[in-house]
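Translate sequence into structure tokens.
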Amino acid sequence: MKVKYIAEEQDHTTKEERLPIVMRSMKEKLVTVVIPTFRSNGRVIETADDVRKRLRELDIQNEVIVVEDCGRDNTWDALVNYAENERGFKAIQLRRNYGQHNAILCGIVNAKGDLIITMDDDGQHDPEEIEKLIVKLDEGWDVVYGTPLREAHSRRRTLASRLTKMALQLSANGSKTVNISAFRAIRAEICEPFKNYQSRSVNLDALLHWQTDRISAIKVNHRGRLHGDSTYSLRKLVKHTTNMVIGFSSLPLRAASYTGIAIAAGGICALLFVLSGWIANGSVVPGFAFLACLMCIFAGTQLVALGLIGEYISRIYGRSLNQPVFTVAKVVEGRND
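Result follows.
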């Protein structure tokens, strides 16, 4: 299934004309903003507060859900204190560290809104840009990504992110131009099947691509990190990319099969070479090194293929155990009066 991606610069005149109409229609809907956080030392409160202020300015009914991914710092205490005076605010603490995408999925499953916005806790996603995502979504898309006009990450993080996007393209059979971001607007009905998702391996973007091909992207302002350092190391990003390719695609198995065919063809060519030498010269081709290299290539390929098969079997076994995608430890909600 080909995924339709459209990334375009804003036509400000058109958007300004449509903005009042779309925003008026949004007054009848509830928007849920999901913010995962891990070891933010309570600074996620600033992000949540900025989001709520902006949505109130737009006169949009909203709820904000912050999912604390068991960072074991003072973030949960700060969330509890903040919730005491905030109507429509919910904080969820997970029992252990499950990962960013599992935390986002937890927030989505608990969301009550008609539209769901996901964003990071570090302030890089500008709340002022939320209305642009909503307007774009109103054009008939099911998912809209807010991709940055200019990346604010380090070069290493940007490179790793691009590799992740390439992995998504492979796993989702998408088009060549892939624009994804943690800043997303999603129609709530698209997320209904996620409530029955049973695998510990979660990649929200892959799940969204499985659900719909009406996916678009729009350029938004991407601010520099307002506070804290990224907890995403290069190792974590590589692990995330590997999980996306192996967990949501059979491409590695097909690649192993094609590699096996290619090496088998090479082996046949080597055999023909040996036979031709025997026919022409009356003797076999000398050289133990030649034979040893061929054996190493064949053995290495077989081990790689077995490793891939083992990884898939391991994931199948993990699903048969019905391991939870996440486990909620505590929930606190703002007052309703």
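Note: The chain has a mean pLDDT of 79.
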